[in-house]
Automatic annotation (TrEMBL):
<dbReference type="InterPro" id="IPR007396">
    <property type="entry name" value="TR_PAI2-type"/>
</dbReference>
<dbReference type="InterPro" id="IPR012349">
    <property type="entry name" value="Split_barrel_FMN-bd"/>
</dbReference>
<protein>
    <recommendedName>
        <fullName>Protease synthase and sporulation protein PAI</fullName>
    </recommendedName>
</protein>
<dbReference type="Pfam" id="PF04299">
    <property type="entry name" value="FMN_bind_2"/>
</dbReference>
Amino acid sequence: MYQPPAFKEDRPEVLQQLVQRHPLAMLACNGEGVPIVNHVPMIWKTQNGAPVLLAHLARANDLIKRMDDGQEALAIFQGPTHYITPNWYPGKKEHGKEVPTYNYMVAHLRGTLQFHEDADWLLSQLNGLTDQMEAGRDAPWSVDDAPDEFTTRQLKGIYGVELRITDMVGKWKVSQNRAAADQQGVVAGLRGEGNDEALHMADLISSKQ
């Protein structure tokens, strides 16, 4: 991934936070020369001091047949994004030499695949994913809420995916390369739009000032 110095963000703890807040990954693999992409929520775990990503896919998804254990894959996680109009830059009114851009946050985690069909592994992954996604709810749902025989049948319809991370990089493009006046103009413009994505991006830009 292209990483201009101003936007480079490779700190593991920061990338981990993005993964945990935005767990839906684009899992990209190279299957016999043809890209294979699946969209799947993944949870970050630490095993023997190293990060891994855990997920599950429907058994009807033939990724497990097209890929072998040990092959490389790339998980891409995207955080908040927003279009930035040049109308928010003060210089636009002065000289007009401004263009639009797009702000975003993204993490690329590369690693090797390991597939799992063991029921205990699958149940552990489901519990971990559920606990993460249900955290903070007034009445969080638990895997144990479902009847045992129902859960057992459901487990037969999935297989587990583990990505053992070997490299991770991130890119935080949140107007760091702009002058303070431009950043302030963008923040004001985003707050004026008022939607959740705009307000989140405004907060991110403000935190980098």
